């Protein structure tokens, strides 16, 4: 059983389906990184975790320094929404859809290069994701599922 502050159904906004596959322990702030790391550990600890497609801010956003006072929007809302919409349109998913996260990750991995070309241009993290590959701690491709991150 997980000790993290997440439930058995987590919320992810569109572009974060890619981010969770690539996350290697770096982030916008210490609080953001701690939260994202805890989420990835929750995913490790809960292999049957479900995911609900979030229309706005999600589990990752809640500790982001760019999250606005309304707790729903980002300082970079237009860019973030464009990325979300691009991934959701390509995958044929809608906000509110619930599915097993592992299946969602495998579906995203099957189209990874195409999705990254549509979703990620202009993202500050893109060079790191391309360098490290989709072997983040929450990725089904990461067989070791180590709790130690490569920075």
Secondary-structure topology with pairs:
Layout: E1 9-13, H1 16-22, H2 30-45, E2 50-54, H3 77-91, E3 98-100, H4 101-110, H5 112-119, H6 126-132
Parallel strand pairs: 1-2
Antiparallel strand pairs: 2-3
Plain-language structure description:
This protein is mainly α and 151 residues long. It has one domain (9-132). The chain is 42% helix and 9% strand. It is built from 6 helices and 3 strands, in the order βααβαβααα. It has a 3-stranded mixed β-sheet. Mean pLDDT is 84; it is low at 145-151.
Tertiary shape: globular
Number of domains: 1
Strand order of the largest sheet: 1-2-3
* Number of DSSP E strands: 3
H/E element order:
EHHEHEHHH
Q: Give the termini distance in whole angstroms.
A: 27 Å
Task: Give descriptors for this structure.
three-stranded mixed beta sheet; mainly alpha; disordered C terminus; 151 residues; 42% helix
């Amino acid at each position: 059983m997980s000790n993290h502050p997440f439930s058995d159904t987590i919320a992810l906004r569109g572009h974060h389906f890619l981010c969770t596959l690539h996350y290697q322990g770096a982030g916008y702030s210490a609080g953001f990184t701690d939260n994202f790391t805890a989420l990835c550990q929750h995913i490790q600890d809960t292999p049957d975790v479900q995911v609900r497609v979030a229309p706005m801010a999600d589990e990752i956003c809640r500790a982001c320094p760019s999250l606005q006072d309304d707790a729903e929007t980002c300082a970079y809302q237009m860019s973030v929404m464009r990325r979300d919409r691009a991934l959701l349109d390509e995958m044929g998913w809608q906000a509110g859809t619930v599915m097993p996260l592992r299946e969602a990750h495998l579906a995203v991995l099957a189209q990874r290069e195409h999705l990254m070309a549509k979703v990620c241009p202009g993202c500050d993290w893109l060079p790191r994701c391309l360098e490290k590959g989709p072997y983040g701690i929450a990725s089904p491709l990461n067989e070791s599922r180590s709790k130690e991150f490569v920075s």
